[in-house]
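Bug report (template v2)

What were you trying to do?
Predict the complex of my protein with zinc ion.

What happened?
Run completed; filing so the output is reviewed.

Input:
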Amino acid sequence: MAVTNKIYIKNHRQLASQLETSFPKGAFKGATLDILFSGEGLSKLDDATRDRVLDFAEDFMDCDCQANPHCGCPERKFVRYLLELREQGLGPDAIVDVMGDDYMLYAYPGDVLSFLDSAVRTLEAAEALADVDGQHDAAREVLALKQGLVR
Ligand SMILES: [Zn+2]
């Protein structure tokens, strides 16, 4: 299961009561993207929550796809965000803390860890393939990406 299926809204019950409606706990569930992040109920949220909801919408839902926000871009951008935190040297616990501060989201550190492990394995497979193909420049690039994640 994709890591974005394991990202949850912090204070979910409190937010649902501020919005006077219910939506799923999963941040990337279709109804959560529609109800919480689409902007309609924003005026009902307290300031701190509203800022983070707006940040999330700006950072992950700003594409022009017709199917927005159900086009897959939010999930892809969030995966990129997780990898960037890892490249900055953060471990799973710190990554969970940062996503809480940035967007009022949480995940289980174990799920973040398995996501990072599988990202590294994917890069290792790509590196091996490029090597077999004789594409040594590509292999070196992949190796550099991987080193950014495992240090
Ligand atoms: Zn899109």
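What did the reviewer find?
Residues 63, 65, 68, 71, 73 surround zinc ion (CB under 6 Å). Residues 3-107 form one domain.
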